[in-house]
Design goal:
By secondary structure, the protein is of the alpha+beta class. It is built from 13 helices and 21 strands. Bound molecules: glycine and manganese (II) ion (2 copies).
Length: about 450
Amino acid sequence: MIHIPKTEYSRRRKALMAQMEPNSIAILPAAAVAIRNRDVEHVYRQDSDFQYLSGFPEPQAVIVLMPGREHGEYVLFCRERNAERELWDSLRAGQEGAIRDYGADDAFPITDIDDILPGLIEGRDRVYSAMGSNPEFDRHLMEWINVIRSKAHLGAQPPNEFVALDHLLHDMRLYKSAAEVKVMREAARISAQAHIRAMQASRPGLHEFSLEAELDYEFRKGGVKMPAYGSIVAAGRNSCILHYQQNDALLKDGDLVLIDAGCEIDCYASDITRTWPVNGKFSPEQKAIYELVLAAQEAAFAEIAPNKHWNQAHEATVRVITAGLVKLGLLEGAVDELIASEAYKAFYMHRAGHWLGMDVHDVGEYKVGGEWRVLEVGMALTVEPGIYISPDNQQVAKKWRGIGVRIEDDVVVTKQGCEILTGGVPKSVAEIEALMAAARVQAL
Ligand code: GLY
Ligand code: MN
Ligand code: MN
């Protein structure tokens, strides 16, 4: 399995500390354990910012970064080793492991944080934290600050500035390093395999969940712990529900099925959508819509390169889709006017993509100073145009109703343009039909 190397976490901490103001401190908590019901917990998923800076996989931990501190810039508070808990739950790194395996300069038990952290904050002018995103942690932070304030008469110096860490950290996360791209390529490869497997298994009479099971099988077999988001397996009219997740309907002969699914590795997501005919053969209407979405996606790829701005790819998809819908008789009027009046939104109501990384809808600004962000090498994004013709749309001929198509790939901006990470899944009508036909022959 390909992972982010330990050296990369250390490089990130140094890069963040280099951008922090002198005499400051950054404090970040691990994700809390979420209870599912009574004694059952949700599968633990580390907080993306915390993971980005530490690679430390446990809950009940706090990262403290203090640039320039003589006795160590990186302190990790974490759980102590505990034979009883380790027998029931899982092994713990403990303080020794935090230093030995995760590069902390020093580590303390999380149960001692109230005694130790105020002393680390004291004398620093500025505190960086993810203010507002974790009210309980914000409250703790203020308690630690108040401990220092209460000792002001003894000469203690509380910090006076509180700064949102997001601005620095999320801008760093937007630019993917070679190691990050490598992990994202691997997540994309396994996700592509999963889509192929689902395509091969597709048959009328199965259910949406039958195909979801094929995805999950391929993810787990690839060593991946979990999908990056709830898989969408949407057949027939369900393909027109953008974030459909019930995944329990019958796969009917003559219908399309839209699958939007991807796995994550070291918290790095892949996000792939493919749409195909349940029975392996596109109808003329399905093919017409499919090829229009595909053409829109191709047009978008051509607009992803350094110095092009974020919205150019979206604008390209809007133009191709609007012109195509006019040609098919689904929209009437002049293309420019239909774009200006946003008439296409009845069929294409979302944007062409989003940043992709440790969060499937990743952090990073889309506009800077009011202008669309200019693309740079290392930025990762999805390209996912779609057309959804509502089953209830009385404005269009019946033969079009209930067709929903999205095609989604993941790309990284390169010097020349972009690298498509998810090219491993067939995409043209001919390729999809050939793959599905071959799977049928094999099954006979
Ligand atoms: N999977 C959600 C999205 O494509 O944005
Ligand atoms: Mn997406
Ligand atoms: Mn998606």
